[in-house]
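Lab notebook, bench 4. We co-purified these components, and the gel suggests they stay together. Before we commit to crystallization screens, I want a quick structural picture of the whole thing.
Request: model the full complex, all chains together.
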Amino acid sequence: MRIGIDVGGTNTDAVLMDGDRVCAHTKIATTEDVTTGIAEAVKTLLSGTQYEPSAIQGVMIGTTHFINAIVEGNRLAPTAAIRLGLPATAALPPMSSWPERLVRAIDGRAYMCHGGHEIDGRRIAPMNCDELARVAEEIAAQGVRSIAISSVYSPVNEECEREAAEILKELLPGASLSLSHEIGRMGLLERENATIINACLSELADHICRGLAEAVSGAGIDAPLFLSQNDGTLMDVDYARRYPVATFASGPTNSMRGAAFLSGLRDCAVVDVGGTTTDVGMLRNGFPHEASTEVSVSGIRTNFRMPDVLSIGIGGGSRIRSEPFGVGPDSVGYRLTEKALVFGGDTLTCTDIAVAAGIADIGDRSLVRHLDRTFIDAVLQRISEDMTNVVDRVRTSSEPIAVVAVGGGSILVPESLPGVGEVRRPEFFATANAIGAAIAQVGGEVDRMYSIQPGQRDAVLDDAKQEAVDKAVSAGASRSSVQIVDVDEVPLAYLPGNATRIRVKAVGDLVLAR
Amino acid sequence: MAYTLELDDLEDLARGAALLGTGGGGDPYIGTLLVAEELRRGRTIRLIEPDEVDDEALVIASAFMGAPTVVIEKIPGGDEPVTALRRLERHLGRKADAIIPMECGGLNSMVPLLVAARTGLSIVDGDGMGRAFPELQMETFGVYGVAGSPMAICDERQNVTIIDTGDDNRSMEWFARGVTIRMGGVSYIAEYPMSGTDVKRTAIPGTMTLALRLGRVIREARESQQDPFQALIDYLSGTIYEHARILLEGKVVDIERRSADGFVRGTATIATFDGATKVELTFQNEHLVARSDGKLLAIVPDLISVLDAETATPITTEALRYGQRVRVIAISTPAIMRTPEALDVFGPRAFGLDEDWTPVEKLAPL
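Here is the predicted assembly.
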């Protein structure tokens, strides 16, 4: 038995699953403190069944806490970024392309020191202990306790980051250190950005992860706790505490994976309708299609593995106007139950239209009886057109594709989208997020430069694959289930020795102790 | 007319330069950050037309050379291209009056702007490649008699090498490539010192503002829900890059790359959604040739670029991925790049293709 929980901005959904079967599900309002909401959800979930907390073998949680903290710019730790790369890289100090607002929110301080590697393995410049000691002194004087360390070519050689971390640990005992080679791939700025984000989330991660663990053990469950990552795989709670940045895009990923599970489809478009937005993405081979270019989070460029999702401002709480006619993008959000007409409020929302049209039955139907049928149809028509448009932009072929609608607001999705095809709304569609978290797999990835000698390509590739498999296994996957899901080779121009960048990703089923 | 570059121009310029990069030349993004940093510090960049350069002026070409993939990891210190220029000036015993981009396509659209911002020198609106090419001799400056030498190469430690191979520009490229590898795979150069008269005679004029306008045309079409491809074709018809053709819209169905002789060589296959028609692109850093069923559609030095089918965002050969929905566009090069002398240096045979050049407007008539 496993429990999947999705903690959203408005609602917390929880599902209880026995293998592939959904045994129970529940939805409660998200609470300000993490612990109570989750404890409440678990209690409600189990109370309707004959299962004991001791039967639970794993709890999987998807959370938007960390990305929301960045988007809102609060609860972030003051952070120092130290880059090893001088005399190179000086033209663009850490955080130089960040929005001013976020630099202030983390009280960000940038330092550049000598060090880093060349592509061929030489050091750019020797590291200088005195230089680092001076930086440590300044950081200590300012009371900063979260530090991001990046170094040129650290995905190929992490020596400099490790050496700097050793020195800083000694000088700043208790400081939380994030090292870029553990967080990002090639591309110094994007990797460094992700590392700084990770560092500024460290205190919040501590707090949230402790809260989650307490909520689960408080419910009498003695089972490992996992958080879902951007690519639809899981990490254990200790890993999440150290790498909170890896949870960033887990929301869309979970709903898409949940949709795949519920519909039984491995290739389809997924339309996830929440309170404020509709997110549309493509599933390929059961996994979300990842963005091919760099993804900007709140104005900061990163190179996370993130699903390629398009969003429009249409959800259950979207505000509707008649003059001029419009649906969204603004939404009443979590105040739906006080603002919407069917709940006695004064704001016309998509939910009211759904109730008036007879496709939903919530609140007091008599409160929307006055709405004109032509107007209702016009709103539904607009929603249908906008959704069709987004699905059309996301799909990669003009062939009809399967469309799966999930999420609490998905009653708004019409039965079929013109020119695209029929829409499926699987059972338990409203809790697809939590199901996606429950069924997530674990993965391992290798992304590094290799020097490939003639005739050695296969051997090098095999090494990289083996390393990815080992990483997946050490993350908790059963070895027999691990598969290589992505291999990518990019040879580097202009250099001898066939320098090649190889990326390999392996994923497998999580082993749960009986 | 001289033009002062604004901060808001940089994204458009980068987009247009990536289109002119024909798949190679590196993603100009990091360059926009470098230049934006200069503009925010209050420095200015003034673009002048070739006609505004004095005949007797000394103009020096500025660029980076090496692997763009190294630049995204080993970001420059910022002084390298300036030091290269200063050391070449010292070697020549004369100060430059203006600089000129070597290559308007890709990341090299931005490096000379950094130099212009830091030195206050004007930058000529034009270049020697009219697109991106992989080697230093592939410039109209050299095609029409300007020697690339002496040139200066600099790295982030301020190590400098001066190379002088007389008027043998191929040898200059060969030595410079070796030095660049020793410098860690990327270097910053000052080359082709020339007179204002030479600039007017040998440069491809207006290519920097062309890149800027192409990027702007794509963005404005997107913002007003127009077709960015039609907007591009319409705009190009009024320029020296007169003929543009959409060769195909489809999906990337195969991509194969290998490292050979210090270049990325490979092929990309794009198929229409019904699979009925395929276009095969052969590239060596940049796209060299487009064929469909063995039939030639476009060939170097004409431009072949792959753009996102929806947004018309240019995609470099490195960023091409299976499944991407793209359109392939071919664009005619200006007349100055189509003479027999020019084709000798950067026509199909210069890339080892056993084929003559045929203009894209003949291969793919409207």
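Residues 69 and 268 of chain A are 31 Å apart (CA to CA). Worth comparing against the SEC data before the next meeting. Chain A has four domains: 1-76+206-248, 78-200, 311-432, 441-508.
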